[in-house]
Automatic annotation (TrEMBL):
Belongs to the LEA type SMP family. Keywords: Repeat. This is SMP domain-containing protein. Pfam families: SMP (PF04927). Coiled coil: none annotated. Residues 40-97, 106-169 form the SMP domain.
Amino acid sequence: MQSQTNAKHGDVFGVSCAAELQSPVVSTGIGSAAIDGDPITIGEALEAVAISTGDKPVDQNDADAIGAAEIRATGEKKMRAGGVGETAQAAATFNSNTVRVQDMKKLSDILTDATEKLPVDKAVTKEDAEAVYAAEVQFPSRVTAAEVAEHGSGAVAASMATAADLNERN
């Protein structure tokens, strides 16, 4: 089949375009689970945080939430040695002793590829989201008003709550 391309706009005009139409292609990356009906996992919810607020330095509230998410994903009673929760705790400790923001560990440093870093993953439930929220807000005085204004607050819990809500709808 011959076609012509409009160089100005990149449009393709073919003799019989209808025969070539296919279903829209949906990326199999982050967020596609909600589109294709598969439940969103805890790892995927954590990866969404890396994408949405990844430049935020890890604070203790984030570390607590990430640790709780890991525990919920694995079903274990504590964080795994070398897991995302322990790595987040180390990053929060490092950041608390670091003056320059550009030298701090960011959420994206910890949560990129979270699904691969978790030894076990599961669909996010409302109970998971509530447990992560409780962990994230248990010590609200750790985050200053200036930090909330600059970077936002509650990204991990918000991502988990959104995932749980989408999972309940499907």
